[in-house]
Specification:
This protein has 18 helices and 18 strands. The chain is an alpha+beta fold. It has 3 domains: 6-139 and 391-516, GroEL-like equatorial domain (GROEL, domain 1, Orthogonal Bundle), CATH 1.10.560.10; 147-206 and 359-389, GROEL, domain 2 (2-Layer Sandwich), CATH 3.30.260; 208-354, GroEL (3-Layer(bba) Sandwich), CATH 3.50.7.10. It starts with 5 loop residues before the first helix and ends with a strand.
């Protein structure tokens, strides 16, 4: 009989305790969002310290609202944030995939006794092969394909006021279509500007809308074919406080003369362009400059840096950033410009340059307006990703297909096979969760379509087998691939952790070991 080393047993116990603890933290976070997955997913009521509350089923919003002190749980939130920032959707999918892989990985490590590096190695192979299969199943589309509207519907249709949200995004995309161009690679995130205002009504405008109340200038009701230029330079006049600091009278005169000269040069340069509007990001402008422009019936309008870039994108012109470049100003033309004084909205209608569309999103309350705004963003992100990476069958159909392929290919793959099985299990969990959220026995329903080609799923209304493409349930391949990559990052990190350390400084840490504590000190 072999005698076991008590020290090894204690170390193994500490490792398993850390893994168990981390796994529980990830599952706890995942459980808060997994019930939101799919068209029949449920909502969450979020309440902050001030009592403000809002209802949402948006995974990113829920994840970023979670307050947790557990370091691994925080890591899950960071991964979700990264997924949202990078592709704008798929946060819930990423978190569920991560949770399922960590749960299965923990079972192999703690219960079966497989070394973590072997499990992680198998997971890496499974992830790589899954991405290859996703790309193989992806179908390329363009702006004119009817399936693009289906992608938007799948991403945002189940959200609050989903049908109207889908209609808004689809209408914006129809405006951006250019029948003259064969290659239609449109950057939707730069071409669609969103305004969230519960006071206004839903609207899709072929151009740019700026929210401003104008009190200092007379704004014409409407101007046709008006030229515009964009400035991001300092237009401030000399401050009185600066003048008081200069005691030399001649120096003050020189400063004033210099300011007058620069102002005249800027005014003359603007007038030469024939512009009717000057957009500037500088909050303040020289009074003499304003007077000179008003004499020539030229409006100077203050806008934010973001609005300035949007206008530049729409007009396809450069923003002037230095006074030295005033002689090189290029002007763009708007088809029409008009101001709605009642709503405080300034409308800049597109001309022949690049298209820019504004979607105004309203709501009964500020809370509902924000939720509808998030749904619109998800729809736009899904459409952009679909145009770039192609589309695949939704409803978890493609994930189930890839899961079955991994299992088939993994029959004789050696020591890494169990790690690949972890990925296969996680992928199949997406359809299982969607069906569970719809009130079905997920495992039972999935058994009916396991041998299908990747296009077939379950109709969540009837419970019957259906071709997802024909049913219009399609997803962006890019969002799914990024969700899998995001999930893999946290899985590989968590499964390799064998201790939880509390670092007091770069050279000191406290290591928890069952009932004992070892203090590491810099000597």
């Amino acid at each position: 009989m072999t005698e076991q080393n008590p020290g090894n047993i204690q170390a193994q116990g500490a490792e398993n305790a850390a893994l168990e603890n981390n796994c529980a933290a990830v599952l706890s976070v995942a459980d808060t969002v997994r019930t939101t997955l799919g068209p029949k997913g449920l909502d969450k009521l979020l309440v902050d310290e001030l009592g403000n509350r809002f209802i949402t089923n948006d995974g990113a919003t829920i994840m970023l609202s979670i307050k947790t002190v557990h370091p691994v749980a925080k890591l899950v939130v960071e991964i979700a944030d990264r997924q949202e920032t990078k592709v704008g959707d798929g946060t819930t999918t990423a978190v569920v995939l991560a949770a399922e892989m960590i749960k299965e990985g923990k079972r192999l490590i703690a219960d079966v006794g497989i070394h973590p590096t072997l499990v992680v190695s198998g997971i890496e192979l499974g992830i790589q092969r899954s991405i290859e299969l996703f790309k193989q199943k992806a179908v390329k589309i363009n702006m004119k394909d009817a399936s693009l509207a289906q992608v938007i519907s799948t991403a945002a249709g189940s959200r609050m006021d989903g049908n109207q949200v889908v209609s808004l995004v689809s209408e914006a995309l129809n405006i951006l279509k250019n029948p003259k161009e064969k290659k239609e690679m449109v950057d939707l995130k730069k071409s669609i500007f969103l305004i969230n205002n519960p006071v206004l009504e839903d609207m899709v405008f072929d151009g740019i809308v700026i929210q401003r109340q104008f009190f200092d200038q007379q704004i014409p009701d409407k101007m046709e074919n008006v030229k515009a230029i964009l400035l991001k330079i300092d237009l401030k006049e000399i401050k009185e406080s600066l003048v008081k600091e200069v005691r030399n009278y001649d120096e003050i005169v020189r400063m004033k003369e210099s300011q007058t000269k620069v102002t005249k040069e800027i005014s003359d340069s603007i007038c030469k362009t024939g512009a009717g509007i000057v957009f500037v990001s500088s909050v303040h402008a020289d009074e003499q400059l304003l007077s000179n422009l008003l004499e020539k019936n030229i409006m100077l309008i203050h806008v934010s840096n973001e609005e300035l870039l949007n206008i530049a994108n729409a007009l396809d012109v450069q923003v002037v950033r230095r006074k030295e470049d005033m002689g090189k100003i290029s002007a763009g033309t708007f088809k029409s410009v008009y101001y709605d004084e009642e709503k405080g909205l300034f409308f800049l209608e597109n001309h022949g340059q690049r298209k820019m569309v504004t979607i105004i999103i309203s709501g009964v309350t500020k809370v509902t307006s924000q939720e509808r705004w998030r749904a619109v963003k998800d729809g736009i992100s899904a459409a952009q990703s679909a145009l770039t990476e192609g589309i695949v069958a939704g409803g978890g159909a493609v994930e189930l297909y890839i899961s079955e392929r991994l299992k088939e290919e993994n029959l004789n793959s050696g020591v890494d096979s169990m790690g690949i099985e972890v990925v296969a299990h996680a992928l199949s969990s997406i359809m299982r969760q969607i069906l569970t959220n719809a009130g079905f026995n997920g495992s039972e329903k999935m058994a009916e379509i396991k041998n299908k080609s990747g296009e077939y799923g379950i109709d969540i209304n009837t419970g019957k087998e259906e071709n997802m493409f024909e049913a219009g349930v399609v997803d962006s391949a890019g969002i799914k691939i990024n969700a899998l990559k995001s999930a893999a990052e946290i899985v590989k990190a968590v499964l390799r952790i064998d201790r939880i350390l509390i670092a007091h400084s770069p050279h000191n840490a406290v290591v928890g070991k069952s009932s004992n504590e070892t203090i590491l000190k810099d000597k």
